Amino acid sequence: MQKKYSEIKRVLKIEIDNKSDDGFAMLTHFLQNHESKTKINFEAPAKEYLLQIHEKLQISHEADFQYYLPIKWDIPFPPISKPKFTFIDLFAGIGGIRLAYQNLGGKCVFTSEWNNPAKKTYEANFGEVPFGDITKISEKEIPDHDLLLAGFPCQPFSIAGVSKKNALGKAHGFLDETQGTLFFDIARIIDHKRPKAFMLENVKNLVSHDKKNTFKVISNALTELGYTIYFKVLDSKHFVPQHRERIIIVGFNNEVFKGSERFEFPKLPDPTRTVNEIIDPAPESKYTLTDNLWLYLQNYAQKHKEKGNGFGFGLVDLNGITRTISARYYKDGSEALIPQPGNRHHDGRGGAAIGPHAADGTGVQRARRHRPGTG
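The structure corresponding to this sequence follows.
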C-alpha cells in the first residue's frame, strides 16, 4: 500500500530551518531514488538518519524504509518514474531550472541550494530537500548524471552587483571569495563526473565583466575540460512579462559527441504576455505602502536623477512588461511600480501589495522577484 509523502513528512517532521543539517536532504534523496542505482549514494547515511529520527521522536515501529515505501508523491511536481535522462540541479533556488528539465522527462538525482527559504519552497514543490553549501560537498559524493545544470550566483558579475561592490570598495568577479569563485565548484564537479552535457545560467554582464576577462577565464576553463561550448544572451520577455536578460552557456562532452553535436539556440517567439495577466486584481490591504514610503521613493529617484544616476522606481505599462525585477528592490530602489487607476500601489512579490495614492489619484503595484537564488 502506498503511503503519501505528506504523511511521511508529518510523521518524520521533515522541516527546514537555520539549524537543519543535510540529514533530511540525504533522506529525501534516497526516497526519490530508491528504485535506481543512484540509491547507493544515499542509502547508508539515509538509514542512519532515519534511525536517529525514530529514536528522537520515539516512533514505535522499526526504522525500516520498507515501512515507508512505496510512496504516493502528493506534491505539485512528482519525480519521473521512467526517465529519459538524469541530471543534477546546482544553485537550485526554488527549482525553476529543474522543472523545465523534469518536464522533458529528466530525473533529478542530486540538488544543492544554501538558502533556507528557497530550500523550503523547493521541498514543497518537489518533495526533496536540497543539500547545502556546495563548497563543502565532495564531487565524489555526487551521483553519476547525464546533464549538469547550474544557475550559479550572479551578484559578482551583475551590473548592479559590481556597482555596489565598487562603491563599498569590495572585490567582485573571481576576486569575490564568497561567490565569484563558485564557478570553480562547478568546474571541479564537471571534471570529476564528466557529464554528457551541461547548461549554466548567469547575468548578461558576465560576458563583458572585467573587460571580458571573466568570461574568457570561464570559457577557457570549460574548453580545457574537454567541452565544446555555445552561449547566448536570452531575454525572459519572450515568455513572461518581464525584461530580464541572462546568458545561457551550453556545453557538450567532446569524448561523447566528438564535435558532431548539432546545436543552435532556438528562435524565440514574439513577446505576447502582459503585466495585466499576472497581477492580483484584489491584493490584501496588509501590503499597502505608507504615504511616507511613497514620498521617499519619489525623493530617492529625484535625488539620483539630479546626480545622473539611473536608480529609482519605474512605472510599468499594464499592457506591456516590467523592467528587470531585483531581489534587492527594497535596498537599492529599483522599484517596478504598477499603476492602478483609481486605486493604490500594489506589490507583487509572489503575491500582492498596494502602495499609497499617487498625486493624480492613481496607484502603483511594486513587483518583486520571489526566488532568492540565481541572480
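The chain has eleven helices and eleven strands.
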